[in-house]
Fold:
Amino acid sequence: MKTSIESPVSVSAKKPCKIPEQRRPLQEHSAPLRQNSDRFISHRGSMDFDVARYLLTEKENDNNGVYTTPSKESYKREIAASLLQDGDIASKKYRILSFTSKAPAPPEDLQSLYSENVAVDNVPKSSKSRRYIPQSAERTLDAPELVDDYYLNLLDWSANNVLSIALSNTVYLWDASKSTTSELLTVDDDVGPITSVKWAPDGRHIGVGLTNSVVQLWDSASNRQLRALKGHQSRVGALAWNGHILTTGGLDGLILNHDVRIRDSIVQTYRGHVQEVCGLKWSMSGQQLASGGNDNLLHVWDKSMSSSNAATQYLHRLDEHCAAVKALAWCPFQSNLLASGGGSADRCIKFWNTHTGACLNTVDTHSQVCALLWNKHERELLSSHGFSQNQLTLWKYPSMVKIAELTGHTSRVLHLAESPDGYTVASAAGDETLRFWQVFGAPDTLKRTKSKDAAGAFNMYLTHIR
Structure:
């Protein structure tokens, strides 16, 4: 076990960035041109060029002053019937260069729906219209030097609509309302890389976990460090806020509750994991804490059982996962419902009743589960995955039927973060890109704008990611 590093952390807020000029952090990602276009390209094989040439030159040949006998006209019609399969082609009004293969007739229900003679009110309506889910990212930004480590938590979205992402030794802030990027801090190599970031509920202060076991508390408005929190013996890869309490999880297996208002910040210590803590989430009520670790364990801790400066016993010890448990998400519409996801040897999403500790359901996703997010507006769950598709999957709860699969990342999707309004999701992956998906619907104001915009969903240059 490594000893605690007590030397002060060296920080430079304006350290020159070593990123190549062509890949600046959080700039528009320039993807290669697609080889396959989605435009309809007409197929010339369905055109009859012989008929077209005949029709174009027929009048010219008839008016060239050459006298034709009835027998020649009869012979001409017989030749046309043999070669063009239509003996009366000259008397019919054919379209020049028209396609011989016509589009299939629309289904009967569509014919009645769009018929001018049938009122729309007469068409039966489903109880609820199906929401359109864009299959591609609305926006893609470069994220060079994003550490490809499953156990870290390097992305978060604040209540003030500012996205934070840790790229190697630097934390960048991206203001979603203005599409502006700023650098919050850069640490030296002896204490980096940065291993976790988490916004406080006020949307202004942010916790930053480091490889050297220290957690820094920063004020994003003034770009200054407020304090350094110690207590771990190795890197801190997981953070979670509960009011003024910052909970930290480390490679040493410890979970510490820091009251950031007081000098001696550690007020509770949770002991239960024997390997790295890689997932931490407080319930919405702030009464229960879920923790996942590389020891394949999921613990649920109850705040009421905590005692000051003493090792706290867990409420539930859940050992049904077969790999590291990083992905955790509390249900927004059922307070005692917790979703958890396992790593590459497990590949399952499990649902737990945290009052009883019972496993309610298990779904095999067939790929590593990296992150989970609940939809605040519908009974849906979003999961991000690793090999082999590196996809985002939207599930209907509780049936767990797949609603959509979103692809685009070329490496495992390690992190998910949700916008303050709960409609847009940001994903960061090992392919060093940050992508934005409007997977949970659209705000009412944006929906009204879209109805007037023929260009379709979310113009990437209208940067109001709300």
